[in-house]
């Protein structure tokens, strides 16, 4: 099991200096709008992921008019206590586990798995292809370490290739260089494509199952993987697009253009699904992600649920609460402006909840 027992926040967003003790598997965080409920969830997320869920700009995480923040959390993982400390000062970040500093933060990733579900996640459906790739990349990087390695190299080569395309006139051996870049793009892009494809094929049935449960009815959901690499071999595509790439001065084909098409009853969700249906789908997507991580990490991740009650009808809320209260889930944090609503929802299923009023 994975639990966080307590957390201390110093100069993190609106928290000057606060400590919270968590003594239950289900923790409700309540209080009026703007009091810092989401910020507290984000602080927990930060300790697990070495970054905020919402922004990579540390100035936004640091309390106004201060030059840094500190987060400390005591985790209980399979019977052992682990202390994680994050310190950000004057733009410099240090992270330690049990007083040992990390030289690479990526080593921390996956040790304390967590899944956040927040209202801004709607961007995964409504935003651009970049939002969907970001979600998929973050998930697959946690599952397959080699995925992140390929992706980082691919992006580096892509940048170099695009720079070359912009400076063709100054590069006498541009064609040879492009040949080398293309080989490397294929070498690192193809495995990313293959992992995205095989993962989604096994992931969609899980999402469908969870969607049906939350919605309480069957509506077909699907995730189509849209990639130029499915149409022809990547190296052929790079070859045939080379002239065009030179004209537009960027790489027009490859996994950096991939997208996911979310469908509800075979119609694009972005255009036709209601807000409640979209939200139910996002829950299904994130809870399927939770299940995948749980199997892989051999323990249930922390589940951080922000503003879950908005836009869901009573029936869907009840089913969701019943699901996350089940023993197969680990520690769950839920924010809500209404303490009574939260308490009632868990009382209805005879589940205990710690209510933390901020
Ligand atoms: N860097 C910062 N320094 C100080 N305060 C900040 C900083 N960033 C955000 N805040 C404050 O944090 C508050 C927002 O907190 P948060 O989003 O956690 O609220 P919430 O309780 O989740 O609200 P809601 O119920 O509306 O979702 C705002 O009052 C905002 O002014």
TrEMBL record:
It comes from the Bacteria. ATP binds at residues 31-38. GO terms for molecular function: ATP binding; single-stranded DNA binding. One of its GO terms (cellular component) is cytoplasm. The keyword Cytoplasm applies. GO terms for biological process: DNA replication; DNA synthesis involved in DNA repair; double-strand break repair; SOS response. Its main location: cytoplasm. Residues 3-348 form the RecF/RecN/SMC N-terminal domain. SUPFAM superfamilies: P-loop containing nucleoside triphosphate hydrolases. InterPro entries: DNA-binding_RecF, DNA-binding_RecF_CS, P-loop_NTPase, RecF/RecN/SMC_N, RecF_2. It is found in: Cytoplasm. The RecF protein is involved in DNA metabolism; it is required for DNA replication and normal SOS inducibility. RecF binds preferentially to single-stranded, linear DNA. It also seems to bind ATP. HAMAP family: RecF (MF_00365). This is DNA replication and repair protein RecF. It comes from Chitinophaga terrae (ex Kim and Jung 2007). The lineage of its organism: Bacteria, Pseudomonadati, Bacteroidota, Chitinophagia, Chitinophagales.
